[in-house]
Design goal:
This protein is about 25% helix and about 30% strand. It is of the alpha/beta class. Strands 11-12-13-14-15 form a five-stranded mixed β-sheet, covered by helices on one side. Strands 16, 17, 19, 20 and 21 form a five-stranded antiparallel β-sheet that branches. A four-stranded mixed β-sheet has the order 2-1-10-9. Strand 24 and strand 25 form a beta hairpin. Helix 1 packs across helix 2. The termini are far apart. The mean pLDDT is about 95.
């Protein structure tokens, strides 16, 4: 960060910080956490903050003092936030003015906005303290929660080594560089946001943040892309398709003219999206289809999309540098070209494990020839050119708008209400429907129960109550 003191680091509408200013506020918060809250290296610090300068300052400060960053979504209901806090055993949550009320009085909170507004907060603080903080490559950098088939979310632990090597691999293939102006698209429930924030600022790029709700306000989003001359954008295919269709209908495609690198991840890259991108012809822009579960650190495979050659299927491509992919059959034997099998991922990105769940970690990983692999549960096929193609799941896990969902987690939530049996299904690739067996509950009650226990993306669009399933 100190290599570019006067360069613009982050900006949100009319608020901005140079690298020098950003680093100053990060140091202030870091020292406050060390001295006033006595945070230790390796301690898990949760953060529940909307998109803001404070959000990025908080993330970087947690990392600077050797603590473990754990994002909590401001969109989650209070019951779920408290359950996740209990799972992490975190004693401190960083918040700001918009999220303070998400927690009750028994939880220790610190308002990050005080760092930006209180000039006296650094009195008697010694900045040289930060040089004595010890962080090793094998220390845990962050925890990200994913949906759990047992009904309990899983806390994925990612080491500093995992994150740094993943960033090196993405930089090596030229997806993003220090000269990029990057737009921050991902919610904090996606691990992509760690790359967008920490990754961009580690290499000296400029990060443009959208105000809350900005990713779906397409007029605002297109204005930001144009005025801020965005060169790097990373989001899910469904959002890309909706946004690009909006621009095409509005005859506003010139807002994309600055893009150098467009990355898609989190869902299959549809033929419809490929055709749309081909029709709008973004000049001088490389389009990347990336793939990777949280357990292998953000991205594991890559494919430089060729809109003409990929008209029938868009591959997830090849392993990133320093990653390894293996395809196995139902008997755990390697399989050959043009056969479907489960994808195993090894290499530098394989996670440390699920926090507090060594049993789940043991079931999710396997050692082959002294190398540790994560068993993704994703079915893939390798074509004759050595490119991987995504074919679906071997279990009941689904993706909805890029979010990974275990239907069992929703079903377990419903069974905690006045429901004797239930099944949740995904329809038309864009919504969930819950079929429930009950004689004394209606759709309104079921929806309210789910809204108080589940994040918004996991709440079924429709509840069908039956006397018997």
């Amino acid at each position: 960060m100190i290599k570019y003191p006067q360069k613009l680091a982050i900006e949100l509408d009319d608020q901005s910080l140079t690298y020098s200013e950003f680093y100053y506020y990060v140091q202030m918060l870091s020292l406050n956490l060390l001295n006033k809250h006595e945070v230790k290296s390796g301690e898990i610090i949760c953060q529940c903050v909307e998109r803001s300068l404070s959000m990025v300052i908080g993330i970087m400060s947690i990392e600077m003092i050797g603590a473990v960053y754990c994002p909590l979504s401001p969109r989650d209901p209070q019951h779920r936030l408290h359950a996740l806090l209990q799972q992490t055993h975190s004693r401190l949550v960083l918040v700001h003015s918009l999220t303070k009320t998400n927690f009750n009085g028994s939880i220790l909170l610190f308002d990050i906005d005080l760092i930006l507004t209180n000039s006296n907060i650094t009195e008697e603080m010694s900045f040289h303290q930060l040089s004595s903080v010890e962080v090793t490559p094998d220390s845990i950098a962050y925890i990200i929660f994913t949906s759990g088939s047992t009904g309990i979310p899983k806390a994925v632990q990612v080491r500093h080594r995992n994150f740094a090597e993943c960033m090196n691999s993405l930089i090596y293939i030229n997806t993003f560089t220090k000269n990029d102006i990057m737009i921050q698209m991902a919610r904090c429930s996606f691990d992509i946001h760690v790359q967008e924030t920490l990754g961009s600022l580690m290499i000296g790029a400029t990060l443009i943040i959208l105000h809350p709700g900005g990713t779906v306000d397409f007029d605002y989003l297109s204005e930001v892309l144009d005025k801020k001359e965005i060169t790097y954008m990373h989001t899910v295919p469904s959002l890309l398709y909706s946004f690009f269709s909006f621009l095409q209908n509005c005859n506003n495609l010139y807002t994309l003219r600055h893009l150098r690198s467009l990355c898609s991840i989190g869902e299959p890259f549809s033929i419809q999206l490929n055709s749309l991108i081909a029709s709008i012809d973004i000049p001088k822009c490389s389009v990347w289809n990336l793939y990777g579960p949280a357990e292998t650190t953000i991205a594991s495979t890559f494919h430089l999309v060729n809109t003409m050659a990929d008209q029938r299927s868009v591959p997830i491509g090849l392993s990133l540098p320093n990653y390894e992919c293996m395809i196995i059959d139902e008997l755990s034997q390697p399989i050959s070209v043009d056969q479907d099998g489960e994808l195993l991922i090894g290499g530098v990105g394989v996670f440390a494990g699920y926090s507090g769940r060594d049993d789940l970690t043991a079931r999710a990983t396997v050692v082959i020839d002294d190398n540790r692999f994560y068993q993704t549960g994703d079915l893939v096929r390798m074509d004759k050119n050595g490119l991987l193609h995504y074919k679906g799941r071997k279990d009941h896990q689904i993706k909805l708008h890029g979010q990974r969902i275990e239907l069992g987690e929703i079903e377990r939530c419903l069974l905690q209400s006045s429901v004797s049996a239930c099944v949740v299904v995904k329809l038309n690739d864009d919504h969930l429907v819950a079929y429930v067996q009950s004689s004394n509950v209606d759709e309104k009650q079921l929806r309210e129960h789910c809204q108080s226990h589940l994040p918004p993306h996991m709440i079924p669009s429709k509840f069908i109550v039956l006397e018997k399933l």
